[in-house]
Amino acid sequence: FYKSDIYWIIDPIDGTASYCNGFSGYVIQLALIEKGKPINSFIYCPELKRMYTASKGKGSKLNGKKISVLDNSENIIMVDNYPNPKGFSEWVFKELNCSSYIESGSIGLKICLIASGEANLFIKNVVVKDWDLAPGDLLLSESGGYLFDFKGKPIEYNTTLIKDEGIIATNSIKTYKLVEHRLNLKDYDK
Question: Which residues contact 24 (CB under 8 A, 6 or more apart)?
Answer without folding.
Answer: 18, 45, 47, 48, 105
